[in-house]
Specification:
The complex is a heterodimer of chains A (about 200) and B (about 375).
Chain A (H helix, E strand, L loop, with lengths): L1 H16 L10 H8 L5 H23 L2 H4 L3 H26 L4 H11 L2 H13 L3 H31 L10 H19 L6
Chain B lengths: L1 H17 L10 H7 L3 H25 L5 H26 L1 H6 L3 H4 L4 H9 L6 H31 L1 E2 L2 E2 L12 H22 L22 H6 L15 H16 L16 H17 L5 H8 L20 H25 L8 H13 L9
Antiparallel strand pairs in B: 1-2
Helix pairs in contact in B: 1-8, 3-4, 3-7, 3-8, 8-9, 14-15
Classes of the chains: A mainly alpha (about 200), B mainly alpha (about 375).
Chain lengths: ~200, ~375
C-alpha cells in the first residue's frame, strides 16, 4: 500500500501540484511546438513516458550506490545523460532491427529521449532523494504532465487561431507565449507558493 | 565585396532577429523561462548556450554529416555535457553563489533543443562558412533575449540589477516564476514583431506555428498516428516519400519500360543496378510473388474503382524492384489506406464510384489533412 502511495503521490506531484512543464518550465518548448501538431501528441507522449520512466528508474538504481551518491551535480549530469543515451541507443536498435520502424517513428525517439523534461526527472529524484517507486511515479507523472500541457496549449491555440481581434503583432507566437504564461500562472497556484505581490 | 557583406548582414539579421530562436521559433524556451531570473544567471546561461551552440554546430558541420540523424542526436547530448562541465567549474570557482542558484538547469542545457534543432536544420546541410554565420547569429540572438529577460525579471521581481538594490517601492516576485518569463517573452516577441512589421509590412516573421495542423484531432488509432509524418529537423533527403510520390515512383519504371526513348528527356535519379543487384532483385521478386496471398478485398476494390495503379514491385522482372520487402509492404499498406480514405470520402460526399484514378485518392487523403472541419473531427 505504501508502495502504491509513494508511486501515486510522486506522479501527482509531477503532473499536477508541481507540473513540470508549467510550474518548472521543463520541456516547455517541446510542449508548445507539439501543441501545433496534435496528431503527434500520443505517439510522442508514449515515447516520453517510456524514456522518463525507464531513465528515472535506472538512474535511481544507480543512486543506490554510495560512490555515485557522493558525486557532485555535474558527474550526475554525465551519468544521467549517459544512461539516457544508453537507453536511447538500445531502444533505437530494437526499433530498427526488430520492429523495422519507419524513419518518422525513429525521429520521434530522438525528440522524446533528449529533452529537458526527460532529463529533469532523474535530477528531481536526486534532489528529492526519491526511492525506486517514487522515481517510477515521477517518470510516469512527467509523461502525463506533458500530455496535459500539450492538450491545454492545443485547445488555446485553436481559440487563438479563430480569434480575429488579436492585433497583428501579437498573432502567433507572442499570443501563444502569453496564453501559456496564464496557464503556468494557474498551475503555479497549485504549488501553494505565494507570488509575493 | 559589398554584396557579400550585405548577404552576411542579412544572414545574421535573419538568424538573430527575424528567426530569433526563442521569440519566433520557440526553441530553447525552458532555460530562458526557468533560469534567466537575474542578470548574473542570464550571463551564465548565455555563455553556456553560446559555447555549446558554436562548438557543437561547427563540429556537426565538420564531422557528423555522414552519421545518421538518429545517432547525431545522441552525440549532441553527450557533447553538450562535456562542454558544460568545464564552464560550470569556471563559474563555480569565480561566482559560487550564482553557480549554486542556477541549480539543475545548467546540466539540463546539455539537451537544449536549440542545439539539436540548429545542428539538424542547418549545420549538417550547409557548408562551414554558412554554419559559422548561423551559429554566431543564433547564439547571439539567444544570448540577447536571455540577458534582456534576466535583467527585466531581476528588476521587476527582486528590485535589483546585478545584485545592486534599486530601492523600488514594489517588487513582483511572481515574475521570477516561469509564467513571468513566458509573459515577458510574449510581450518581447510582440514588440519586435511590431517593429519588423513596421519596417517590412510583408515580412513573414512567424516560424514556430504552422496553424494549418492545429485543428487536427489528436485521437486515433496508434498505428495510424505513428504513420503520420513527423519531421522536426526538416530532413528532406531521408524523409519518406508521400503516397502520391510513391505511386509516381512505382509507376516510373513501368513508363520507362513502355517508352524507352523518353529516358533521354528525364534524367535517371538512381544509378543503373549492377548485374548482381539485378539477380538479387529478381530472386526477391520471385520470392514475393510466391509469398503473395490471393487478392485481398481492397485489392479487388482497387480494380472495380478503375484505379490505374502501378503494379507492385514484384510484378515486373524487367524492371528490378529496388525497394526491400518491408518497403513493399509499407507501400501496399499505404495504398490500402488511401483506398479506404477514398471510400470514406465518397460515402461522405456522395460521389459516384469510379470517377477518377489515383489523383482522387490523393485528393481524399489530402482533404483529410488540410480541410478538416474545425473541432478536430475527421470526415
Amino acid at each position: 500500500m505504501s508502495i502504491l502511495g509513494s508511486l501515486f503521490s510522486a506522479a501527482l506531484y509531477a503532473c499536477l501540484f508541481q507540473n513540470l512543464i508549467f510550474s518548472g518550465g521543463y520541456g516547455a518548448d517541446e510542449a508548445i511546438r507539439m501543441a501545433a501538431k496534435p496528431k503527434q501528441l500520443f505517439p510522442l507522449s508514449i515515447f516520453i513516458v517510456y524514456f522518463s520512466t525507464l531513465g528515472s528508474l535506472v538512474c535511481v538504481l544507480l543512486e543506490q550506490a554510495a560512490a555515485v551518491r557522493a558525486l557532485n551535480v555535474f558527474w550526475h549530469a554525465l551519468i544521467f545523460v549517459g544512461v539516457l543515451t544508453g537507453i536511447y541507443l538500445v531502444t533505437l536498435l530494437v526499433v530498427l532491427l526488430v520492429f523495422r520502424a519507419k524513419p518518422r517513428t525513429v525521429r520521434r525517439l530522438g525528440v522524446a529521449a533528449f529533452n529537458t523534461l526527460v532529463l529533469a526527472v532523474p535530477f528531481i529524484n536526486y534532489r528529492a532523494a526519491f526511492g525506486v517507486f517514487e522515481a517510477i511515479g515521477a517518470g510516469v507523472g512527467a509523461g502525463i504532465a506533458f500530455v496535459i500541457a500539450v492538450l491545454l496549449i492545443n485547445f488555446g491555440l485553436r481559440a487563438l487561431d479563430r480569434n480575429d481581434e488579436i492585433p497583428k503583432a501579437f498573432k502567433g507566437t507572442p499570443a501563444v507565449f502569453i496564453y501559456v504564461s496564464i496557464l503556468a500562472l494557474a498551475f503555479t497556484g497549485l504549488t501553494g507558493t505565494g507570488l509575493g505581490v | 565585396m559589398r554584396k557579400r557583406g550585405q548577404a552576411l548582414w542579412t544572414g545574421i539579421r535573419d538568424s538573430a532577429v527575424v528567426k530569433n530562436p526563442v521569440l519566433f521559433e520557440a526553441i530553447g524556451l525552458a532555460p530562458v523561462v526557468a533560469m534567466a531570473v537575474s542578470l548574473k544567471s542570464a550571463i551564465i546561461l548565455a555563455v553556456v548556450s553560446c559555447a555549446e551552440l558554436l562548438v557543437i554546430e561547427l563540429f556537426a558541420c565538420l564531422a557528423l554529416k555522414k552519421l545518421k540523424s538518429y545517432f547525431r542526436v545522441a552525440v549532441y547530448a553527450v557533447l553538450g555535457v562535456f562542454i558544460n562541465i568545464p564552464i560550470f567549474m569556471f563559474f563555480e570557482r569565480f561566482t559560487p553563489n550564482e553557480a549554486q542558484n542556477v541549480g539543475i538547469f545548467l546540466p539540463l542545457l546539455a539537451v537544449n533543443s536549440l542545439v539539436a534543432l540548429h545542428c539538424e536544420r542547418f549545420a549538417v546541410k550547409n557548408p562551414f562558412r554558412k554554419t559559422v554565420v548561423d551559429a554566431v547569429s543564433a547564439s547571439a540572438g539567444y544570448a540577447l533575449v536571455a540577458l534582456l529577460v534576466g535583467t527585466v525579471r531581476e528588476i521587476i521581481g527582486s528590485g535589483t540589477i546585478y545584485s545592486v538594490s534599486l530601492h523600488l517601492p514594489v517588487q513582483l516576485q511572481g515574475f521570477l516564476f516561469p509564467f513571468g518569463g513566458l509573459l515577458l517573452l510574449g510581450f518581447l516577441a510582440a514588440g519586435i514583431k511590431a517593429l519588423i512589421l513596421r519596417r517590412h509590412p510583408d515580412a513573414d516573421v512567424e516560424q514556430a506555428f504552422d496553424m494549418r495542423e492545429i485543428t487536427q484531432s489528436h485521437v486515433g488509432k496508434l498505428r495510424n498516428l505513428l504513420d503520420t509524418d513527423f519531421n522536426p529537423y526538416d530532413e528532406e533527403e531521408s524523409a519518406p516519400a508521400k503516397p502520391r510520390e510513391r505511386l509516381k515512383k512505382a509507376a516510373a519504371p513501368a513508363k520507362e519500360a513502355a517508352a524507352p526513348d523518353d529516358g533521354a528527356v528525364a534524367a535517371p535519379t538512381e544509378p543503373e543496378p549492377s548485374r548482381r543487384a539485378q539477380k538479387a532483385a529478381e530472386k526477391r521478386a520471385k520470392k514475393q510473388a510466391k509469398a503473395q496471398k490471393p487478392p485481398r478485398e481492397k485489392a479487388a476494390r482497387a480494380k472495380t474503382t478503375r484505379v490505374k495503379t502501378p503494379q507492385p514491385p514484384t510484378a515486373s522482372a524487367e524492371t528490378p524492384p529496388r525497394r526491400s520487402r518491408a518497403e513493399a509492404e509499407d507501400y501496399l499498406s499505404e495504398f490500402d489506406e488511401i483506398l479506404s480514405e477514398l471510400d470514406a470520402y465518397r460515402e461522405k460526399y456522395g460521389m459516384q464510384n469510379g470517377t477518377d484514378t489515383a489523383d482522387d485518392a490523393h485528393a481524399a487523403s489530402g482533404a483529410e489533412s488540410t480541410d478538416e472541419p474545425k473541432g478536430g473531427e475527421k470526415p
